[in-house]
Amino acid sequence: MSEADLRRQFGNRAVDALLARISSGSSPEIDAKLSAQHFGLQPETAAAFLDAASVAGLVERRDGQVCPACKEDLGALDPDTVLCPLCQEAFSDHGGIVTKVIYRVGGHPPRAIPWVIVIHGFNTHGEWQQDLSWRLGNKLKYSAPVLIYKYGLIRFSVLVRWRHRQLARQLGEAIRAAVAHAKANRIPEPPDVILHSFGSQLFVQLLAVPEFDDLSFGRVIAAGTVIRPNYNWSERISQGRVEGVLCHCGGKDWAVPFAQYFIPGAGPGSRWGFSDVAAINVMDAGYEHGGCFELKELEANLGPGGLWDRFLRRHFSALNCDPKVFQPKVWRPMWAPVRGLVRVTGVLLMAGLAAVALTLASRVWLAVVERFV
């Protein structure tokens, strides 16, 4: 039973209402009859819906015992108990213990988002970050600071490793300062991180720099990522460097398949997904390189029960029944000599174009000088 099956059988309204209930974290116990109207279902259908949702892993179903006097859940009760441990009334005086089906919204309370760091790709100002920051601030009932990290426009330097390391160190220094500031303002938790394109490559470069081993992070969303699909996330999680990772893939992201040829150490993460079993991979077939950051998609992903909302605020099991979740096959990079040849050719081509541009500019400048001197 998947979320798609639930929607086909019981309708979108019921599923959306349940996901919103899960996301809110309020009143973990659900009464089928009392919640029927909220789900847009008849009472008997609501019970069937919650039974199906328990199969999908969205709710927990168990047969519970209720005191006939105080109506409280008795939990695991010794069979020889004759008095209610809560109200001290004799069960026999009120017709005996009542047995009923109890539905609970998982066993995990909603997670608070402490603060968020957003890192965009290269050759862009990351205009979508403002929309993301605004929506994160408005979806929460408390203040969760959002640090938008901008490393400026870079073009040719994306092709060389030493520049990657330099940018990663700059990122590390900025995050270390932000962490210190957050702790000074009574936010001791590590930040969640949202990455896009080349920003994701800088992030894994940062994790590899020993001088920044003191930095740890919460949950990581990588969208349009150029991180290699075989990246060892399990190791980073076991080290306590990150709590979990979501790879939001785009079926029409035509940029990242070429990353391994031009960006050292990169790969087609956004098209392939992460093969590490610790990572959660979700594929949106219609997304291009920045598809998830379009206004409509941001609203859907961050809205109650949305993909990013569930990943950031719920236990990871809340994504188990999502039909877009997949586990990719093992990925292997292109043969190194081929990648090296393409990269060298690209560097030489861009160097040639730069030389031509400089030659033309100098000629124009000389012509101007000759005309007016």
Automatic annotation (TrEMBL):
Q: Which organism is it from?
A: Rhizobium soli
Protein name as catalogued: Alpha/beta hydrolase
Transmembrane stretches, start-end: 341-366
Q: Which keywords, in A-to-Z order, does the entry hold?
A: Membrane, Transmembrane, Transmembrane helix
* Transmembrane helix listed as a keyword: yes
